[in-house]
Amino acid sequence: MKFISNIKPFFILAFAAIIVSSCATRDKYVRSTEFNDNIFRTDLLPKDSSTIAQISWKDFFTDPILQKHIAKGLENNLDVRIAVQNILVSEAFVKQSKAAYLPTLSAGPTYTLQTQSLNSSFGQIIGNRKFNDNFQFSGNMNWDIDVWGKLSAQERAQLASYLGTVEAHKSIKSELVANIASNYYQLLTLDEQKRIIQETIDLRNKNLETTKALKTAGNLTEVAVQQSEALVFNAKAMLVDLDTQIEILENSTCILLGIPSQKIERANSKTPQFPKDISIGYSSELLANRPDVKQAEFQLINAFQLTNAAKASFYPNFSLSATGGFQSGDFDKFFSANSLFANFVGSLIQPILNKRQIKTQYEVSLANKQIAYLNFRKTFLNAGQEVSNALKRYNSQDKFIEYKIQEKEAYKKSVDYSKELVNYGLANYLEVINASVNLLTAELNISNAQYTKMKANIDLYRALGGGWK
Question: Could you please report the per-residue DSSP string of 4-30?
């Protein structure tokens, strides 16, 4: 009973410290109102909160071959797998921060053999060497009481860091899905352009034979023949360049899929099927779905809480420590009641001079908090810019394609008319060449414009936070 009554003040002190800790004033994170502004450059905001970002990638991309590629990429992509490991690391730190409230305990035996120097003052008095044995088995406990909320701030900082890694994982998945889809549709576009150029080569070969016949008939010169042949070589060179682009793009797609370089399976048609009635939602919905924006905000919360922890370092540190066990110079008496010993210490330490370390830590935490805020603001604005850019490209491409189709039809008529005029000797063959080159360029431009519209749709899906579900 006397033992318990002696340590009773320490438990009372610990309980009082916990009560003080619960009443301590701490800064709470509140998002700035400036992040509630609309950041889309459009007047077509809907009245509801629906958004294509809420659609699963399996429902957004309906091509079964593309779905298979995306599933493989999400499973094998190295960046995704690294992000998962980062989550596990962060999760371990969260568990550690939760355990920081508990005392540290250690226990173990100790044996000490001591003998004095015969040349020391004590040794000269005794006159002969003596050996002293000391056997000890002790347990040690140390408990830092979180009076000022330092440990709780560090726990919230670690939790924000963990949630940030989760959002980073989502962001990588969203980016990966968009990149795989963009590469896939670009491959379809290059296949279509390859078909256009192959048809152009066949047509120009026929024109070359016609030019040779007209030269034999005396209607054209060798110059026209060489120009026609040059057009064939030009188209064949474009075909070689397209094959190179296709293989390089397939190789880069294989990196996304986490597989060795190989041919990428794809559909025969490049016409994609996307959900209709696209709705973009408000900026609050953008924040609710964009993983990189949420990640940036969690990084800000992490820096905010670390500032709270650094601020708490200015206040006194209260801790309880205890040591107890068995100690004896004679092993035969080691387990007797007289060998028991105990030591309890309650300390309240106020830092006074510590080479400016605490103040430097606090100033650095303030600067890091400002950096995190600016990065959050930058990410937020970039998100709005990406949505605005994708919207503009998506909405303007239909009119652009319409004009390009009209341009192609005009060049096609120009080729037919110029050939007819050359046959009657009313035009120079150079006009046929120019019209033919312009026709091919117009056809390729239409193909590129159609891909631009597809990519704008994919970019809008990713910019609004879609792709990770």
Answer: HHHHHHHHHHHHHHHHHHHH-------
Whole-number percent of the chain with pLDDT over 70 = 82
> What pLDDT score was predicted for residue 466?
81
pLDDT per position as a tens digit, 171-210: 899 999 999 999 999 999 999 899 989 988 888 888 888 7
Give the residue among 186, 197, 191, 203 at the shortest CA–CA distance from 238. Answer: 197
Instruction: Indicate whether this model's pTM tops 0.85.
Output: no
For residue 85, what pLDDT band results from cuts at 50, 70 and 90?
very high
Task: Burial-class residue 465 by CB neighbours within 10 Å (0-12, 13-18, 19+).
Answer: buried
Q: Give the pLDDT confidence of 339-374 residue by residue, as tens digits.
A: 888 888 888 778 887 788 888 888 898 999 999 999
Distances (CA, A) of 132 to 118, 121, 465: 14, 18, 73
Measure the N-to-C terminal CA separation of the chain; round to a whole number of Å: 63
Residue 343's Cβ-side half-sphere holds a number of Cα atoms within 13 Å equal to 10
Q: Which domains does the chain have, with CATH numbers?
A: 31-101+146-315+356-463 (1.20.1600.10)
Other Cβ atoms less than 10 A from the Cβ of 337: the count is 6
Please list, residue by residue across 142-176, b when 16 or more beta carbons sit within 10 angstroms of its beta carbon and e when fewer do.
ebbbbbbbbbbbbbbbbbbbbbbbbbbbbbbbbbb
Residue 3 parent element (H or E): helix 2-23
Say how far residue 318 (Cα) sits from the centre of its chain: 40
Q: CA-to-CA distance for 105 and 102, rounded, in angstroms?
A: 9
- From CA 94, how far away is CA 90, in angstroms rounded? 6
Q: What does the pLDDT read at residue 183?
A: 93
What pLDDT band is residue 272 in, cutting at 50, 70 and 90? low
Q: Of 293, 29, 299, nearest to 162 (Cα)?
A: 299
Q: What beta strand segments (E) does 77-192 contain? A: 104-115, 131-145
Element (DSSP H or E) covering residue 126: helix 121-126
Residues facing 140 on adjacent strands:
106, 323
**Mean pLDDT to the nearest integer, 13-21:** 50
Cβ–Cβ under 8 Å, residues 84 and 118: no
Q: How far is CA 185 from the centre of its chain?
A: 23
